[in-house]
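User: Is it possible to get a 3D structure for a protein together with its bound compound? The compound here is nicotinamide-adenine-dinucleotide. I've pasted both below.
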Amino acid sequence: MNDFARPLAGHSALIIGGGGEGIGRAISRAFAAAGAAVAVADIDPERAGAAAQELTGRGARALALAGDVRSPSDVDGFVRRSADEFGRLDTLVTVVGGQVAFVPAVRLHEMSDGDWDLAYEMNLRYVARAARAAIRVFLGQGGGGSIVSVGSVAGVMAAPMQAGYGAAKAGLNSLARTVAAEYAADGIRMNVVTCGAIATATANAEQAGAEVPEIPLRRLGAPADAAAAAVFLASPLSSYVTGQSLVVDGGVTVRGPFEV
Ligand SMILES: NC(=O)c1ccc[n+]([C@@H]2O[C@H](COP(=O)([O-])OP(=O)(O)OC[C@H]3O[C@@H](n4cnc5c(N)ncnc54)[C@H](O)[C@@H]3O)[C@@H](O)[C@H]2O)c1
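Assistant: Yes, that's possible. Here is the predicted structure of the complex:
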């Protein structure tokens, strides 16, 4: 019988990029509220520490980890230290990503090789590396595991001025399908929370709470909207769901050419 009140009770999770004020922090809070022990990894040690302290203050087990997803040893270390601290690891969540924060928004013919590589590195390469490390832990401990990655509608629609970001996020959906197929028999699932525009401290902040006519549900998403999807995909509530993209976009990707 599923625990609908605390669907992650007894679980332990690593959230990479969980320390800021955006989607990752909302996921950290939601996972703790759902009953999980949470390791918060972030490039900013103060953000990771503040997030872990907040969760501990709410009665959850929490661990702060500082490191950079561009460092292979940091990524492997996030996974190893989480599993060591909690005794096992049930869920990996990858949140870090983006393009405009890291590289200029330009059309493809103006994009440098370095910028392309950075978009790939920040949105897909580290995710594959973290997933590999988590899968090794899941296989070693037995009992399966779940991987949830924060993706974007830029990976399923055109991504003007963000070609590298869009291609990398599309690759995330492919990675989820492949992991799903390769490890289904081991009880390991991977799914993507495909976000539309979410209002965070660093993105779309001025439109938070405003009426947005272009979006069928008339508003931007909140970090908590993405977090609710992540809890579902991490938990046994979604035990028959793998390799999927759960689109959290207020209906943008299903809007047709006709006005309602
Ligand atoms: N906000 C949106 O509108 C939106 C839309 C679609 C998809 N997304 C996706 O959501 C995810 C997070 O977005 P957000 O808006 O919450 O971002 P954010 O900037 O609020 O949070 C990202 C966190 O990652 C940390 N971080 C940055 N670089 C890092 C590195 N090299 N190593 C480790 N940690 C690092 C930051 O310190 C921060 O705490 C991304 O994958 C993004 O593509 C966001």
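The domain at 12-245 is CATH 3.40.50.720 (Rossmann fold). The chain has a mean pLDDT of 96.
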